[in-house]
Amino acid sequence: MVKIGNINLPSFPLLLAPMEDVSDPPFRAVCKDNGADLMYTEFISSEGLIRDAIKSRKKLDIFDYERPIGIQIFGGDEESLSLAAKIVEVTNPDLLDINFGCPVKKVALKGAGAGVLKDIDLMVRLTSAVVKSTSLPVTVKTRLGWDDNTRNIEEVAERLQDVGIKALAIHGRTRTQMYKGEADWTLIGKIKNNPRITIPIIGNGDIDSPEKALEYKNRYGVDGIMIGRAAIGYPWIFNEIKHFVATGEHLPPPTIEDRLQVCRKHLRKSIEWKNPVVGINEMRRHYSNYLKGLPNIKEFRNKLVTLKTEEELNEVFDTISTTYNGYEFEKIPIQLVDYHEKCPIN
To answer: Is residue 102 annotated as a catalytic residue, yes or no?
Structure first.
C-alpha cells in the first residue's frame, strides 16, 4: 500500500496526470472506469481563483465517484498560492497539488509552473506557504530542472520533503526539453533510492505500454507511475498495465464496442458538464484517438466532427458498430505527441 497523507492507494498506483484542456471531469470519468487510482484536475491559476475567474472556478468541479482526487494549482506568488489553497480546501478534494512542471511559455516565462525551477529558494517558500495554509495533504509535480545545466531535482526533493509535502511526482525531462527527446528516469531512480527520502516518489514521462511500465517499476523502484499523454483516447492503458504487472500477460485490446461505449460516455459527460454546444465541440478532438486503427474511418470521423446533436452522433456510433462488427484491432503503438500543440492554454 502507498500512503499519501491519509490517502491509501494500491501498492503500485497508477495516476492520471493533470493535463490542461484534457483532464476535465468527462475525461477523468472514463479513466476512472478503466483503472486510474488517483486523478488530478487540470491545473488552476491561483490568480484566477482569487479573481473569481469563471474558467478557474469551473475547474474546481469534482465528483465523489472520482475519489481520490487532487486539485492542482499553479502560481509564483506566496500570498496568491496561500489564498488559492484556502479556496481549494473548501471544495473538499483529497489532496492539493502544486504544479512546478508546466513548460509552456504562457506559464513558465511568467515565473510559474516550470519557471519556478530557476529559483529553488522560491519554490521552497511557495511550497511551504501552501503547506501552512491548508490541512489537505500537499503534493508537488515538477521536472528534472530548467535545463541540462540545472538538473537540481535531488536538492528539490529533499527540501520540499523537509517543508512538508506528502508525495513528489517527477517528469523525466527539463523545461527546455518540453516533450521532445526521451524522458530520463535516472535521477528519478536516484531520488527514490535516497535514504533521506521517505515520501512516495511517482515517475512520469513516456510510459506508453504495460511492458515499459513494468520495466521502469523494476529498474527505478518508483512507488507509482503517472500517465498523461498515453491515456488520451486510450484510457484502457491503466487496466492493461495493472493486469500485466500482476500476471505478465496482456489483456486483449478493446473491441469496437468497448471503444464506442467509452466514446458515448465521454460525450454524455461532456454535454452534462459543459452544455450541449461546448460539450459536443470539445469532444471532437477525441474521436480520432478513440477510433485509431479502424480502416477507412475517415468518412465517419468527418461526420463526427461536424454533427451538432447527441442524437446524430449516437446514430453515427451505431453505424460504426454495425459496419465494424467483429473487427479485431491490432495493438497499435501509442504515439506520444505534445498535447499542448493541440490543446493550447487559453
So the answer is: yes
